[in-house]
Amino acid sequence: MDKSLAALPENIVIFDGVCNLCEFSVNFIFEHDTAGHFSFTPAQSPLGASLLKHFGINSSRLDTVVLVRGERAFTRSAAAIEIASRLDMPWNLLTVFQAVPEPLRDVMYDLIAQNRYQLFGKKDECMLPSDELRRRFIEQLPG
User: Fold this and answer.
1) Residue-wise pLDDT tens digits, 3-27
2) Which of 61, 105, 104 lies closest to 82, judged by CA?
């Protein structure tokens, strides 16, 4: 897998493909990432599952967005802030939340994440992205 990581795009967002909040988040990132920094993969895809396993993240109870950047994986509020840092103005200003201690940020993140299905609903199947967004999806390891 390590050699395959080098062939992947620099920033991959792994998300729960059946979560409505996660789908909204992917569409939001896509809309506000006009430079095209991010690629996406559902946790339920072969690539998503492989990356989660590689980084030791339990895929059976995934309750966080994951940002993979090279050999590093960011989760929870750290992932959200790293993603925001590459978004268009004014969204990149959300990095100001780095000043809040990570344990405190993660308490808020976890509160939303643990209740996301109750608050925002859940689908029976992974999202179907638009053709334009689909070009930024990767679901298999290269080669």
Assistant:
1) 566 678 889 999 876 666 777 788 8
2) 105
